[in-house]
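We store sequence, tokenised fold; for instance:
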Amino acid sequence: MDFNALKELWIGDQVRVLATAETGKFEGLIKGEAKVLIKGQHLLFKPEQIEIYEEPVVESLDKLLGLEMPIKQIKKIDVNTVLDLHLEKLPGYLSDSGLTILDYQLKECRNFIEKLILKKRHSAIIIHGKGEGILKDQVIHLLGDFPQIRQYFPKNNGGALEILLFY
């Protein structure tokens, strides 16, 4: 996997370590490396050391025996729908990028919402923190740009928003 593909992973995506074939959950980027939770331990890997992992589809015994019976296959569905806008949780911010921290957080929030819509998700959590409420107000304003978002509710004692999307 290259670094650009690594940046497209969602927190919670399953990955496999190529050298050991162990699987774990992607938990973000730290200095260009993937933070992966494997058996309760957080480990760092270079992009080329991991790959996206999808659970194998389990086929029914009927199909293996050649019987012509309809079967339902179970496919793992990516369900990661949480975005934490705290700067330490958002990899990739560069102070010399020309973006303020707030602009960067809003850009990442917009990208997150666009991915939710693309994947037809129906709800998500955006963690903005409590602070002075500036980021929260800006996130609420941003939600108005998306007609798919029809409702939102405060969560975590006002430190997050749960959004509901309709298609």
Remarks:
- The two ends are 33 Å apart (CA to CA).
